[in-house]
Specification:
By secondary structure, the chain is of the alpha+beta class. Helix content is 40%, strand content 17%. It has 15 helices and 14 strands. Strands 6, 7, 8, 10 and 12 form a five-stranded antiparallel β-sheet that branches. The chain starts with 34 loop residues before the first helix and ends in a 5-residue tail after the last strand. The structure holds iron/sulfur cluster (2 copies). One iron/sulfur cluster binds next to helix 13.
């Protein structure tokens, strides 16, 4: 399926007549009522409630971890999602989640077209909210157009000031909510107002206030049309069976004005009222065919259906439909829904596999982890009795909110003796790991001279937590002089 600027019959154009740049007219989307508009209000309310509400949910992780259900703790280098705590070493899980989300988006796009763009994209949601406020303050399309054309006056200044102030407030609330995902919400909110919050917090709020104002208030549909990369490449996911917002030309043409009581014979059902164009947030005419600027919001469907009600014709002159069905209906045949096709099955399988992979990574996640760094300078030390000693820094990660004691042993190195700095007197060194923390432990391994054969020896540090019946092994090497 190709996305074009329009599907009218191409005509020969002299290149000299094509302007290098042309001014895009301002859009003044008209208010529309209908089931799709109601659905969009509901989706917007739910998404905004999630965005502003989620940081306030608490989740008890014990005394040593934050109790915010979702928190990205940048200073602590951890992210908390309910039961899951992601450490920097586990960033692959976040990467996996992003991949799953991207494939899920491809799958939904192949099935339902740009529903993400039309209903759930933050640009759409915030633009809808900004336009709602604009309508409250400046009125509907005709009043806004009149106000825009009107010369400067105190009334115009008052309305514009009120609108911009309301937009700035929403922008500030948007930026203000964003920082709650990176800070303890009940702590940082009072700090924001008392001037005690950090510079980064104020800078983030200021930046997001400005960018929200700019994107949702000023740039609006231009973000979708000119800036969004997803709008560019998603046509690659479309085919003849992808659901898109479509005008049915076989039914609508030949369009023209219609007077009450006139016959519909010999003409199409489109009365050329342009309501579908007036309500469009991107200012396009869907009757020109599928276009890249169409975000599939469906508002033109509501607008046209309400016109069809007025003229006593069935709904569906503009509807969510597939290109194949439009052609079938034009030939008087029954529509066919082809949901299971190679493309959707492919995306579905990859989505399921990637999702299972991330789920497995989460389930197989160990509450304790270890890594080791052998001393390089010197590689080894010869003691006064001829024994050899290697030094290591063992990093132990306790990913749980409880204190745990672990034993450290060297396995696979016959005759070796392990000592831990600060625990020299213990036959089997036992160290305590603080909750939710990384411990860097100095460990020394001593090998009797008689056991050294002249070439490096591979062995494992084995860290055992008897309390949790948990063992972690980390491979390393013992070095000495060549023989
Ligand atoms: S709203 Fe319907 S009838 Fe009116 S111009 Fe658009 S397609 Fe034609
Ligand atoms: S053409 Fe219809 S579906 Fe597409 S953006 Fe405009 S109103 Fe929304």
């Amino acid at each position: 399926m190709s996305m074009t600027m329009n599907n009218r019959t191409p005509t020969t154009i002299d290149e000299a007549d094509i302007p290098v740049w042309s001014h895009k007219p301002k859009t003044f989307p008209k208010k529309v009522k209908g089931p799709i508009r109601n659905l969009k209000w509901a989706v917007m309310a739910v998404l905004l409630a999630i965005y502003w509400g989620v940081p306030w949910f608490r989740f008890d992780r014990g005394p040593f971890a934050p109790d915010q259900a979702i928190l990205i703790d940048l200073p602590g280098r951890k992210a908390y999602f309910l039961w899951f705590e992601i450490w920097p070493q586990e960033v692959y899980i976040v990467t996996g989640l992003l991949i799953v989300a991207a494939i899920g988006l491809f799958f939904v796009t192949a099935m339902l077209g740009r529903v993400w763009c039309g209903y759930a994209c933050p640009q759409t949601v915030w633009t809808d909210l900004f336009m709602l406020v604009e309508r409250w303050i400046e009125g509907d399309r005709a009043q806004r157009m009149k106000l825009d054309r009107a010369p400067f006056s105190m009334k115009k200044l008052g309305k514009r000031t009120a609108k911009f102030a309301a937009w700035a407030f929403i922008g500030m609330m948007t930026g203000g909510a964003w920082i709650l995902y990176f800070n303890d919400a009940p702590t940082v909110v009072p700090e924001l107002f008392t001037g005690e919050a950090g510079t980064a917090v104020y800078a983030t709020v200021a930046f997001l206030t400005f960018s929200t104002f700019l994107m949702a208030g000023i740039a609006r549909e231009n973000v979708c049309t000119f800036m969004c990369p997803y709008a560019r490449f998603q046509s690659a996911m479309f085919d003849q069976d992808t659901m898109v917002v479509s005008y049915h030309p076989a039914r609508g043409e030949k369009r023209g004005k219609h007077k009450a009581g006139e016959s519909w014979d010999g003409r199409g059902h489109c009365i050329d009222c342009r309501q579908c164009v007036d309500v469009c947030p991107t200012g396009i005419d869907i009757r020109d065919g599928l276009q890249m600027s169409c975000i599939s919001c469906g508002l033109c469907v509501d607008a046209c259906n309400s016109i069809m009600d007025k003229v006593g014709l069935p709904h569906g002159l503009i509807s969510y439909d597939t290109e194949r069905n439009i052609e079938l209906k034009a030939c008087g045949q029954k529509p066919k829904w082809n949901l299971l096709r190679l493309r959707t099955i492919g995306y579905g399988v990859v989505f399921a596999l990637a999702g299972l992979g991330v789920l497995y990574a989460l389930m197989a996640r160990q509450p304790m982890d270890a890594s080791v760094l052998a001393d390089r300078n010197p590689l080894f030390v010869r003691l006064s009795n001829g024994d050899l000693r290697n030094g290591y820094t063992l990093k132990l990660l306790n990913k749980t909110p409880e204190l745990h004691a672990v034993e450290i042993a060297a396995v696979g190195l016959t005759g070796a003796e392990v000592t831990v700095l600060g625990h020299e007197t213990e036959a089997v060194p036992t160290v305590e790991l603080a909750p939710d923390a990384v411990a860097a432990i100095r460990v020394f391994v001593r090998l009797p001279e008689a056991d050294w054969k002249g070439s490096p020896l591979d062995f494992d540090f084995v860290v055992t937590d008897h309390g949790r019946n948990l063992t972690v092994s980390v491979p390393t090497r013992f070095e000495g002089p060549a023989k």
